[in-house]
Amino acid sequence: MNITIKSGKELTIEDFKSILALDLMIFGKDILTNKGMAEKRFLKFKEGVITAYAEKKLVGFISFFSVMPAVHQRALLQQEYIDDNLNAEEIKPLTKEASNSVLLFDHVIDPDYRGQGISRLLVESAREYLKQKNIEGYVIENIFAFAISVKGRQILLSLGGKTMWIKDDITCLELDREIFLGLI
Question: Can you list the positions of beta strands (E) in 86-160?
Answer without folding.
Answer: 99-109, 139-147
